[in-house]
Amino acid sequence: MKTNGSAKKRFKITGSGEFKRKKAYASHILTKKSQKRKRNLRKSTLVHPSDINSVRRMLAMG
Question: Class of 5-24+32-58 per CATH?
């Protein structure tokens, strides 16, 4: 099974086997967003448990 190229660029696997992702809404129209909101968008977060199976499939892990 092939790995999905766009998923390959967007997700990293952590040491414990979870998937790390960037937060959305941080690329443009930033003037109306507060400093606090933009600062929190810089942090990475984990993929939600309900989405893990689809991410695994895109990364050809099962």
Answer: few secondary structures
